[in-house]
Design goal:
Radius of gyration: 18 Å
Strand content: 15-25%
Shape: globular
Structural class: alpha+beta
Number of helices: 5
Strand order of the largest sheet: 1-2-3-4
Number of domains: 2
Number of strands: 4
């Protein structure tokens, strides 16, 4: 487990020196740390003393959550698209599980993923959201970040 945190700490270098920042939790307490990694629900912080802390994003105030996503290069999901994004992600995971269990062949997996992505793009366009962001959101959807 320690090696996983160590490896994630090294990933923080990929975010660059700008990742060192002041973060604030929902209780209003500020701390200084470098963002070492991130998923949709958690962030790994490398503290100034070198220790690592994994925090739920929900434990950070909204400004710190937004900053973490920005530093990590994760586009913000528009609120109107969040349910659709989560549903698409669930379907993609189901498809990957079916493929892993060999209930889908490679071509079926590709076609199913393609349909989900096309549906996501269609809903994104229906909401008249900025088209320059949906390739990054598609990547986020596929990567599970």
């Amino acid at each position: 487990m320690k090696s996983v945190f160590l490896a994630l700490g090294f990933l923080g270098a990929a975010y660059g020196a700008a990742a060192q920042d002041c973060w604030t939790n929902t209780a209003g307490h500020a701390f200084r740390a470098e963002l070492g990694g991130m998923t949709d629900s958690h962030a790994l912080f490398v503290m100034t003393d070198g220790t690592t802390n994994r925090l739920a994003l929900a434990a950070l105030d909204p400004a710190s959550q937004q900053n973490a996503r920005k530093v990590a290069g994760m586009p913000e999901i528009p609120q109107c698209m969040l349910p659709i994004f989560n549903l698409c992600r669930q379907h993609l995971l189901q498809i990957d599980n079916l493929y892993a269990d060999e209930r889908l062949d490679s071509q079926q997996r590709i076609e199913a993923r393609k349909k989900i992505l096309l549906g996501f793009v269609a809903m994104y366009r229906k909401h008249k959201l900025p088209s320059e962001k949906y390739p990054m959101l598609q990547h986020r959807l596929l990567s599970g970040k």
